[in-house]
Design brief:
single chain; about 0% helix; about 45% strand; globular
């Protein structure tokens, strides 16, 4: 079965770039129609979709984060990554990678329509 696992530093300093990687096993990120997202949950708040990279490499981002967000992939490693620049303490959250089969659906993809989830990783932005 498809499994996802986030990795990266748990602490980032303000103004620096947050970088995380999602490693996918049990299935290829290039399989037709699969889409791979980054989602976060700040303390005490709901889930926030950040962006997505589709099986063909096309990307889409949350309007509120677009200027600071970049999602890329390394197909040879079956990984996709997140970069969030110019972070502030308000970017502190649990960060998840998630995937869905069957296409992108709407943008943003509804949070209850994902087939695969990583377990999440805590990232704290602090001096």
């Amino acid at each position: 079965q498809v499994q996802l696992q986030e990795s990266g530093p748990g602490l980032v300093k303000p103004s620096q770039t947050l970088a995380l990687t999602c490693t996918v096993s049990g299935g290829s990120i290039t399989t037709n129609y699969r889409a791979w997202s980054w989602i976060r949950q700040p303390p005490g708040k709901g889930l926030e979709w950040m962006g997505v990279i589709a099986y063909d490499g096309s990307t889409y981002y949350s309007p509120s984060l677009k200027s600071r967000t970049s999602i890329s992939r390394d197909t040879s490693k079956n990984q996709f990554s997140l970069q969030l620049s110019s972070v502030t303490p308000e970017d502190t959250a649990v960060y998840y990678c998630a995937g869905r089969k069957g296409g992108l659906g709407t943008i943003p993809p509804p949070l209850d329509e994902y087939d695969y989830w990583g377990q999440g990783t805590q990232v704290t932005v602090s001096s």
